[in-house]
User: Which sequence fits this backbone?
């Protein structure tokens, strides 16, 4: 084969590979929004800010939102603003109304997935009704360009070197200092890219949250917490973006490290928590639950596999992932 023909062959191959990557990214973003039979989350909100404040000293500020027609009267929605390393970062906060002077509520920090913003994350489930009913505070941090930097994944946050660990540090400190929140009842969850970051943050800061509940992610870095942290992992076994069985998938084009099998990630976490080596598997509400017992310091480790569900919030009609999570956290 002539040099000219060989050069042409490599150019064509490069263009084909680029096309595959582009198509994979398009399919990935589409899959992050939902699959067949899954309601698409809203990406806008009808609330409008009535107060705007800015901090240049690192002191957190909030802006109160008026209640739109789709917002219940028994919750309030706020925008929390933090200054982190010269960057302005924010989080949407949903709080029950009428918090008494002696009340100290639990809180759940929920991290969105790649390409999904904080407000959309707050619409993935009926968080507002849950906040009003169970009286806790839900916090939805906003990632830079709707992404979280946890090392191997995910762009653009990891390519830009975004200081998401520092953002979470300041957010945790801010929430822990609030008079109406119980610092010992702070919990962390995340979906997809947010789930990957949940694992990473809990490993680096095992004292920050009483329990974590990643969903549709895996422990891509293979880290282990230095002290026991309770874990609930929920995952659809038909996930094509971050596959339950691990390996190459649509999401692999965004990660420099392979996705380990979900059960291996959870089993390794259970081992780090000092749990017994033989988990118990049960089937209820059409989901498969694997539970580890005998864990250190009263911690718990559970894996819930939802058959037939893809890269979505895995509600199968009989099983409500939000109720499952809040029950695991002791907030339900």
Assistant:
């Amino acid at each position: 084969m002539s040099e000219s023909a060989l050069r042409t062959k490599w150019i064509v191959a490069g263009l084909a590979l680029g096309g595959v990557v582009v198509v994979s990214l398009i399919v990935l973003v589409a899959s992050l929004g939902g699959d067949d039979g899954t309601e698409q989350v809203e990406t806008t909100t009808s609330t409008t800010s009535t107060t705007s404040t800015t901090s240049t000293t690192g002191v957190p500020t909030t802006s109160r939102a008026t209640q739109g027609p789709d917002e219940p009267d028994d919750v309030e929605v706020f925008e929390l603003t933090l200054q982190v390393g010269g960057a302005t970062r924010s989080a949407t906060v949903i709080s029950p109304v009428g918090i008494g002077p002696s009340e100290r509520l639990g809180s759940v920090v929920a991290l969105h997935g790649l390409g999904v913003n904080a407000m959309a994350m707050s619409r993935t489930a009926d968080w507002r009704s849950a906040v009003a009913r169970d009286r806790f505070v839900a916090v939805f941090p906003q990632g830079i360009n709707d992404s979280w930097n946890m090392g191997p994944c995910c762009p653009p946050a990891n390519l830009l070197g975004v200081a998401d660990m520092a953002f979470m540090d300041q957010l945790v400190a801010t929430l822990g200092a609030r008079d109406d929140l119980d610092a010992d009842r702070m919990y962390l969850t995340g979906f997809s890219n947010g789930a990957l970051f949940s694992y990473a943050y809990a490993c680096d800061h095992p004292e920050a949250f009483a329990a974590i509940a990643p969903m549709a992610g895996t422990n891509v870095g293979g880290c282990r917490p230095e002290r026991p942290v309770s874990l609930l992992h929920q995952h659809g076994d038909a996930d094509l973006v971050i596959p339950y069985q691990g390996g190459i998938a649509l999401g692999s084009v965004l990660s420099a490290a392979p996705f380990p099998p979900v059960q291996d990630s959870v089993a390794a976490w259970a081992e780090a928590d000092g749990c017994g080596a033989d988990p118990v598997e049960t089937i209820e509400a059409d989901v498969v639950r694997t539970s580890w017992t005998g864990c250190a310091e009263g911690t718990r480790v559970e894996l819930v596999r939802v058959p037939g569900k893809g890269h979505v919030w895995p509600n199968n009609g009989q099983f409500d992932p939000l109720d499952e999570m809040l029950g695991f956290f002791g907030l339900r």
